[in-house]
Amino acid sequence: MTLLPSCCPAVLLAARCWLLLGILLSIATHLSCRATNMIEYAKILRLALVPAILFFLLSLVSVALTTHYWIIGDWIVPRGVTVTTSDFDQRTQRYLTDDTIVYFTTRDADATIVSGCLNLTAGVIALIAWSTLRKPGMDSQLAAVRTPAHGCPPANS
Amino acid sequence: MAAPLPIADRLQGKRRFYMIGVIVMSIAGACSALASITLQYTEKGDNQYGCRSERLMMGGKMNSNMYCTRETAACNFLSKYLRGHDRSNATVACNEAVGWHLAYCPTALLMPSHPGRSKMAADYFDHQCTNRPGPLRRPSSFTTHHARYQNGQGGRSGTDLTEFQTSHITLFTHYHELIRRPSFLHLSTASTMALGALCDLDM
After folding, report:
1. How far apart are CA B102 and CA B106, in angstroms?
2. Average pLDDT of B162-167?
3. What is the ipTM of this complex?
């Protein structure tokens, strides 16, 4: 694996920001859970809102743009093209043309849109969850019934 | 083991319900994105534009039919042969289809520069983040190296590509090919979301 040392920065650089964010958030949640032995529920909910909104917006933008290029391809841009080939016709003294019709293989773009819509739904569910679970007094209610069997183990166990 | 109070139990159930909903949806979205990534490779044709073409007689004339994915059609074929407004529309479609590596460009700012950081990696990202998306390009230093190599002028020491650099180019090309589709973004965000929801469910 001679490739590994030099490709690492690039791979790290580009891809794993979201994943890192998610992992850090969950670790932080667990740590605060363990440290206080009582969920600071409101705080965690507020923290959870950030990735949910980010996810929702990303999916929204992605679905919008994917649909847009779908529409452009299907309805706006003409698909019959006259291609000038490099064959020269001696008789007519001009290059031969080739009338080409482009057909789209749609399956991959369809799969992209489907995944975008599923992600959008997941984002909506996350936002609904956030607004439903955000009730006044939730903090004390949950803290009151925290038992070792149920959630965070006590700090001294 | 004390039985939880009914009210709290109800809330816990609610939370579980929503989190399972998020997990199921995210995993479905990730699977679909994976399918899309796979299809982008399997649907690719073998002619110069990345399409599958056939010739047939139509109305007494020979015509060509081309079967392309939307991306290759917009980027490699239509934006080359259309004129005027149609061409700019095709370019827009191309950018929307394969310009998604730009979404990762802000993360380049987070990367601290250190002595061991690969010059090539930096070069590559500078290039890809400052240029317009479109048909796959290689960073300029790669391209000049590559051109020299292919023209047989690489005899001087230090100008021709080492095996290491060649594998670098291959790796970066594949990597770029992967991250510039929206489906890769879908895959990474959905998996993150599923993981986060799983952690929350576990809490």
Report:
1. 8
2. 70
3. 0.76
Instruction: State residue A67's pLDDT score.
Output: 92
Structure confidence by residue, pLDDT tens digits, B55-74: 887 777 788 889 999 888 88
Interface of A with B in 33-72 (CB under 8 A): 33, 39, 48, 51, 55, 58-59, 62, 65-66, 68-70, 72
Same domain, residue pair B197 and B151? no
Interface of B with A in 129-158 (CB under 8 A): none
Q: Which two tokens stand for residue B178?
A: 């992967």
Per the structure block, which two tokens stand in for B21?
């909903």
Query: Given CB atoms, is B75 within the 8 Å cutoff of chain A?
Result: no
- The residue with greater pLDDT, A34 or A47, is A47
Top pLDDT among B163 and B84 is at B84
Which residues in chain A touch residue B36, judged by CB atoms under 8 angstroms apart?
A: 108-109, 111-112, 115
**Domain enclosing residue B164, as ranges:** 100-179
B57: left (phi over 0), alpha (psi -120 to 50) or beta: beta
Instruction: Using the CB atoms, write b or e for A114-126: b if 16+ within 10 Å.
Output: bbbbbbbbbbbbb
Does residue B22 lie within any of the structural domains? yes
Domain count, chain B: 2
Q: Helix H segments across A39-149? A: 41-71, 107-133, 138-144
Measured CA distances, B94 to B40, B75, B99, B109, B186 (Å): 14, 5, 8, 26, 18
CB proximity under 8 Å: A 127-146 to B: 128-129, 132-133, 138, 141-142, 144-145
Mean pLDDT estimate for chain B: 74
- Does the pLDDT at position A98 exceed 80? yes
pLDDT at A23 over 90: no
Residue B8 falls inside a structural domain: no
Is position B55 within any domain?
Answer: no
> Which of A54 and B140 is assigned the larger pLDDT?
A54
Domain boundaries, given as residue ranges, for chain A: 12-144
pTM recorded for the entire structure: 0.72
Phi, psi of B42 (to 5 degrees): -75, -25
Task: Using pLDDT thresholds of 50, 70 and 90, give the confidence band for residue A136.
Answer: low
- What is the chain A residue with the closest CA to B203? A151
